[in-house]
Amino acid sequence: MSRTKVLLTGAAGQIGQVLTRALIEKYGKDQVVATDISSDPGFNCHFEKLDVLDKDGMKTALSNHKINHFYHLAAILSATGEKNPSLAWDINMKGLLNALEVAVELKTERVFFPSSIAVFGEGVDKDRTGQNAVLIPRSVYGISKAAGENWCNYYFEKYGLDVRSLRYPGVIGYQTMPGGGTTDYAVDIFYAAVKEGHYECFLEAGARLPMIYMDDSIRATIELMEAPSDRIKVRTSYNLQGMSFTPEEIYQEIKKYRPDFTIEYAPDYRQKIADSWPGSLDDSDAQKDWGWKRAYDISKLTKEMYLAIQEKLKK
Ligand code: AKB
Prior knowledge:
Blueprint: E1 6-9, H1 14-27, E2 32-36, E3 46-49, H2 55-64, E4 69-72, H3 78-83, H4 85-105, E5 110-116, H5 140-159, E6 162-168, E7 170-172, H6 185-195, E8 198-201, E9 209-213, H7 214-226, E10 238-239, E11 243-245, H8 247-255, E12 262-265, H9 270-275, H10 284-290, H11 298-314
Parallel strand pairs: 1-2, 1-4, 2-3, 4-5, 5-6, 6-10, 7-9, 8-12
Antiparallel strand pairs: 9-11
This protein binds 2-amino-3-ketobutyric acid.
C-alpha cells in the first residue's frame, strides 16, 4: 500500500481542526491537505479553499495531491439546518455525492463520512438505541445524514468504494467551538462557567443526550480509518457512544470546580430536536468489529475541559 496521504473537507470546523492536527501528528505535515470554504485557521500543512459543491475543484485537489484517504467532513449541523433546510440539504447531500463520485472516479482507497445520532427519531428505544434501529429522523440534518449513510452503503455495494462512517454523539472539546448544533450547549457551558459563573441553557434540565470527548472522537475516527477493510462490517455508519448526560448533570459536575456557578433553563427550538434524539447508543458493533473503546466518562471530561479552558482564557 502507498503511503497514506489525506485530504479533509470542512477542516476549519469543530472536529476538522482537531482531526487535521491529529493527522499531521500521525502522518507528517507533508501528508495532509486541509480544505475548507473559510480561511486557513493556521495549520502547518498545505491548505486550500474548497467549496464542496464544486465537484471539479474537489477532483482537482484529490488528484493533484494523490490522496488515498479522504475525510469528507463539511456539513451544516442540526440547529442551522432547521433554520435553512435547503442549504443544509445542498451542502450535506450534494457535497457527499460529489465526494463519493470523485472518490470512485479517482479510485480513492478510503473515504470517511461523519454521520450523527440525529439519524434516529421516531420509533426507537431511547436507551441504548441499537445499531439497526429504524431511522425516522425528525430534523433536516438527520434526514440528510440518514440518506448519506445509505448513499455510502450504496457506493460500497455498487462500486466497492471503501467508505467508513461513525454516528457521532455531541462532540465536546476545548480546542474549538462548535457551530449550529443542538449539543453545542455542552461546550458553551464550560466557557460560561469559567468566564461568567452563570449559564443560560437552551435545553431543558433533563434533556439526556449521547456525548463524547473530542479525544475519544478523534481516536475513534482514525482507528476506524486505519482498520483493515475486512473488519468493517457496517457500511452505513457505526453507532458510537462516549457517555450520556443531561444539562443538570454536567452542571453539577462543573460545580465541583466552581461551586458558585449558577444555571437557568430557557429551552428554545433546539429542545424539540433534542427530544427526537436517543439518550444513549449501543455501540457494541463498533467494539466487536474494530475494537472501539471509550476512554472518557463525565468526570474525566469535566476535569480536562474545565482546566484546559481556564488555562486558555488566562492567556
Ligand atoms: C448537532 O448537535 O447537530 C451535532 C450532532 C449531534 O450531530 N453535534
